[in-house]
């Protein structure tokens, strides 16, 4: 015989919207404290929740909140993310400029992208709202939502910050890395160039997601010349500025640094999240894979920046990342081949991995 709580779960499918609202509103806390009640009867309650994201806005809000909490479970996230019809509905709602729950939809998508099967989103298409000025490729629409959300110019209800996490998870896949590095026909812009500007954004979520996207895409070694070319991606300023504080450098060091790092204001602060600093340093290390990358970092005096970061940021992960980078850029090229051989024998914990 079902418990009172299980009976309450059953009411989320009631034909009366007022009953659905009362039931789902009271169930939100249990999606954290007792998620098993939503997994009964082969996840039937989750099926109902997926349907409710198109219900009245308040009911949809609670349904999305519960789904976000439940998709922390790998079995539930696969059940939700593998439903192509549901994915299409969610993406259609997400791009609606009047959708009141767009941020929750972005959060749910960020959870769904943790399921590796969602990489086929690379080829998914849907009509784009005229005001989005995008094309029919879903990935381009997500990019344009993310950019326009930064100033609230597209949907007054949403900033789309959590798309940073969704895009970061998707960037683990090789084909989606290539997307970030490929000029799009509809606007002639590389997607990576659209988001690199957010490495110093006020939103912690944006900064973290974008830092991980850049790092993941940098695993594509053949693209490194494009990363470093001032006329293409020119990524170095966007990696170095977040890790620089208000420290002073010797004049001979400063003169060779990138123009963006010269004459910074006295109140300049480095990123407050040490994980982001570590991620940017790991990206710099990836970009030393080629001789051209190593030479450029030496020429523009990356070492003093890393030296000061190592000195001033009291974080073991950051300091270890600094040490690995310094070992590469301060080494003689004659020694570099031997050093690489030693690095390959290091324990896996010392390696940079995709996130």
Automatic annotation (TrEMBL):
Origin: domain of life: Eukaryota
Domain Protein HGH1 N-terminal residue range list: 94-277
InterPro entries, sorted: ARM-like (IPR011989), ARM-type_fold (IPR016024), Hgh1 (IPR039717), Protein_HGH1_C (IPR007206), Protein_HGH1_N (IPR007205)
Pfam families: DUF383, DUF384
Domain Protein HGH1 C-terminal per the UniProt entry, residue ranges: 283-336
Family matches, as PANTHER family: PROTEIN HGH1 HOMOLOG
Family named by the database record: Belongs to the HGH1 family.
Protein name: Protein HGH1 homolog
């Amino acid at each position: 015989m079902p418990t009172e709580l299980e009976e309450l779960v059953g009411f989320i499918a009631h034909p009366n919207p007022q009953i659905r609202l009362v039931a789902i509103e009271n169930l939100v806390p249990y999606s954290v404290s007792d998620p098993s009640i939503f997994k009964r009867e082969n996840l039937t309650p989750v099926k109902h929740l997926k349907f409710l994201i198109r219900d009245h806005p308040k009911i949809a809000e609670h349904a999305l909140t519960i789904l976000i909490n439940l998709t922390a479970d790998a079995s539930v996230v696969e059940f939700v993310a593998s439903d192509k019809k549901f994915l299409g509905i969610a993406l259609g709602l997400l791009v609606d400029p009047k959708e009141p729950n767009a941020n929750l939809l972005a959060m749910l998508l960020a959870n769904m992208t943790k399921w590796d099967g969602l990489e086929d989103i690379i080829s998914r298409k849907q009509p784009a709202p005229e005001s989005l000025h995008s094309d029919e490729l879903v990935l381009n629409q997500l990019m344009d939502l993310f950019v326009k959300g930064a100033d609230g110019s597209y949907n007054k209800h949403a900033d789309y910050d959590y798309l940073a996490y969704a895009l970061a998870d998707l960037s683990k896949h090789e084909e989606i890395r290539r997307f970030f590095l490929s000029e799009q026909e509809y606007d002639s812009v590389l997607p990576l160039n659209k988001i690199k500007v957010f490495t110093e954004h006020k939103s912690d979520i944006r900064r973290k997601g974008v830092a991980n996207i850049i790092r993941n895409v940098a695993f594509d070694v053949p693209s490194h010349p494009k990363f470093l070319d001032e006329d293409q991606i020119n990524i170095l300023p966007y990696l170095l500025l977040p890790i620089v504080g208000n420290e002073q450098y010797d004049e001979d060091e400063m003169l060779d640094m990138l123009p963006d790092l010269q004459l910074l204001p006295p109140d300049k602060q480095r990123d407050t999240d040490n994980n982001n600093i570590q991620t940017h340093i790991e990206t710099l290390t990836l970009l030393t894979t080629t001789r051209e990358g190593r030479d450029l970092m030496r020429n523009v005096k990356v070492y003093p920046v890393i030296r000061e970061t190592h000195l001033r940021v009291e974080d073991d992960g950051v300091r270890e990342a600094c040490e690995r980078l310094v070992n590469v850029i301060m080494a003689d090229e004659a020694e570099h081949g031997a050093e690489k051989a030693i690095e390959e024998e290091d324990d896996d914990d010392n390696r940079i991995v995709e996130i």
